[in-house]
Amino acid sequence: MMGAIEGPLPADTRAPPAAATPVAAPRLQAPLHPLFTRGGWIAFCAAAFVLLVALPVANLTLPEAHPLHVPDHLVTLLGKIMCYAIVALAMDLIWGYAGILSLGHGLFFALGGYAMGMYLMRSIGREGVYHSDLPDFMVFLDWKAYPWYWSFTDHFWYAALLVVLVPGVLAFVFGFFAFRSRIKGVYFSIITQALTYAFMLLFFRNDTGFGGNNGFTDFKRILGFPIATPEARLALFAITAAFLLSFLLLARYLVTSRLGRVLTAIRDAESRVMFCGYNPVHYKLFVWTLSAVLCGIAGALYVPQVGIINPGEMSPANSIEIAIWAAVGGRGTLIGPIAGAFIVNGAKSWFTQAFPEFWLFVLGLMFVLVTLFLPQGVVGLFRRRARSGR
Amino acid sequence: MLALLRTLRCAFAVAGIALIAASAQGTAHAASAIPPALVHDLALGENDEKIKAMGQLAASGDEGALELLLALQAGEVQTAGEVVLRVKDGAAIDLATGGKVDPLPQSREDVVLNNRVRRELGSAIAALKLASPDRAARLEAAKTLQSGADQEMLPVIQRALAKEQDPDIKALLTLTQATVQMGSADKATRIAAIRTLAASKDPNTKTLLLPLLEKKGSDFAEPDSDVRAEAELSLRAIESSLATGEMVGRVFSGVSLGSVLLLAALGLAITYGLMGVINMAHGELMMIGAYATYVIQNLFRSHLPGAFDWYLVAAVPASFAASALVGMALERSVIRFLYGRPLETLLATWGISLILIQTMRTVFGAQNVQVENPAWMSGGIHLFSNLVLPWSRIVIIGFAAAVVLLIAGLLTRTRLGLFVRGVTQNRSMASCLGVPTVRVDTYAFGLGSGIAGLAGCALSQIGNVGPDLGQSYIVDSFMVVVLGGVGQLAGTVYAAMGLGIVNKFLEGWAGAVVAKIAILVFIIVFIQKRPQGLFALKGRMADS
To answer: ipTM of this predicted complex?
Structure first.
């Protein structure tokens, strides 16, 4: 699967092919890559089988003593990391392929999570501490009715629509102004950081109506099913896996399409692309909005699995961490950032249990060493070895 | 039992009449100049009589009166029948005659003082103490009187006012006098009193004047319309003075916040301006400066306790040196490999910041550490009645100004500054002319980091010092740099001051969090409008 992906290398190791292609003659382009090679498809199907069938079965049916038994906490952890992997994939689309480093992706993730959280809060019903129709934090604030932006959130499909729309519209509006003004590089990174910081402050306020510091927690059920059962956990796990795999296919399709090639060209030489008659704003805006929507969906899948969402998810530090997942795995490779999310978060959950005081050292060193020595991440390392072995 | 009591009281009354007659004869040769009738009222009268007697004593301004009242307060005045005694150390003096009473009468009773009487006694003593030669005693007395003076004491206060030299006590007394005169029956006196109150600009006088304008039923509390008009005028004067104080206070705290932002952003402006390095570890370099101050403070406390007030003199260069060294080490080991790759620099320096935070947690602990202000930095200038400018803030504003001037001088007047500017403008040309660009990079990065250290030293004087100190400033200082543009100190100064003042005004209007959000949104919108004015690379470098 690794070898199957021919993602363009970042930086200037090759001449950008699309930049020289005239607009009027798309037929002259090199044929597009197939979606996956045969080996790639086999690996993809194997991953799908493991995540969708083998793992849930091993968790549910095998006795605990069995060597192949998958413990519950591992299911939750993997489910959580798969949500992160979707975010890393979204980050790769915008950073790896369009060269735009967003330090605000945590915001879109959290917004999706909050949209889903609103539905989950309302489905608690009267089982809260105060046995009121309103969520506990509103009772605590002495509110008598839901604010207007909570209306209809008791319907799952409306909440699901919000999961897509809220991050999507915010990203579209923000991106439209930013890209139109030709803000790029570090400036874009910094204003996205300011954006997520501002939202974090906003959501920390109790008056905003999203539970302030504590956010949403204590969910009871989703779509009528109790949320804390092993079956619900596995169902959420399988749904997350399905989303991750289909997003991988979607991203793969996108970056091998003509649009993906223009994006890569914009990354490598934006001015030249402009002089060739393309308007980079449209391309950037599309992939930026798509990336935000993917993050929102990941957040919506994340919240029912971990059972809490609070404004801490919007902190600038969280968003920067997303970048390191993509960087560790290898930018511009799609599969790399997914692997990166697993590597970094796996290490995090191990270190924070075994050596909590060393985790920040490890994370910090990862940032430094990856940028210095592994500009193409783990995938790049494998690729280099494969090439030199040939 | 009841019958017995009644007979006893009758007996006392008879004895009392006899005694008064006797003491009236002895007045002429009594040691004390206090009329015996007053003494009698004081010790044996009803509460109202007692209070009246105290008022008369206070008005007399007599030395002996003070002694008597103090004795009363100390519980030394007792009665035996109708005889008023002052009992001290087993000896008793008849206060009416001044003669010794020996032996002590057996059935003595304490003079009972309820709370109201006690309060009046305190005021009376205070009024008498106004004549004391000791300044502290007079000040204390004036403060006591402020809440407890009444018409009776007016003459004493006026007499004291005429003699008083100390401005503080004089102001207090004037205020007290005016407060008392407010209750005067004379209209002109009331108006004069209101004017005096208005001139004092004390926020407390507002509460004195407000009730005058209130309605009691259909009538005003103050019957005379002239007096009411005067009171309204005075109220307005006081309110406008308070508003001025508030306004000046906001501008001051805005400038103060601005100077902190300026210190935080100045180093960033230099490192970004020269090398295009986005240094996310800048906040942590500030944190190192703050910890360096902490260490110096502890060294002074343990080795040079006598010079503790001057530890900052050593802490300022130490914090500069510590941060500059760390910064130069970072430049040599990591950042120089990443020149021309700003996004990677951003990530790598973020990683460095995490490592620095964890290092500090390991070395100094995760808790905040205590950095104490030197004594000369505590207190402040009392500018308005409702506004005190703390010295620590004033010192930091001055410090920020000094640092800006120093950096401006360094960049424009020294050889290093010349090199730095040359490399900023055209790296390859500077290199061709023999400027050691690599070394200039290191020095410039060290300079920027050192300024971060100075900022940390300043922050340690007004806020908490902990491993997370830098994190809270990183977004803010980037905003300043973004707003001000790079490569010019003036832009950074304007941006920092503007942001600081606007932030404080918004805070007063909408609360701290909303103000912060508004500022961030404003900056995001501002960049959309004027991207080229900020972080601007001009001319041929515009898109490399």
So the answer is: 0.84
